[in-house]
Amino acid sequence: MIADDLKYPIGKYNEQPFSEKLKEEWIAEIAVLPQHLELVMQNLDVAQLHTAYRPGGWTVNQLVHHVADSHMNAFCRFKFILTENDYTIKAYNQDKWAGLPDTQNLPVNISITLLFALHKRWVEILKNIPAESWNRTAFHPVHNKMVSLWYLLGSYAWHGKHHVAHIQQLRKRMNW
What we know:
8 helices; mainly alpha
């Protein structure tokens, strides 16, 4: 398996033009992510949770906590973009966050539980964004460009599937 397959098991995110059909698909993907993550984690033991999903990558434990961290930020980003003008996204160092005590010490079920509640609230916002608001933008300092809510919706729908695929791929490779 080549390194890019391990890093991007579903490929990299590619921005898509707006469509109602795609919007519904992406919102549905965000809605079911907590269930998919919970299922892919089923029956993993402590040693498996502390296995890196790829050489040089995070452990499964860190990966699950990262999804919670990332999606908490996403939820806030959506709310800021919907309520403020000229918003600049607050970037964060995801590698440093993955090394903090909550990620290192707490069981993954804490983040999975958090994701169930967070995604319920996030999906409620997403389902009720007026059509014209999908074009609202914010400056993303990491990408050094303006990004729309539409771009972010697709990016976060991809993000969840991307990390679930990391764990699925690891389980398959390790025959778990």
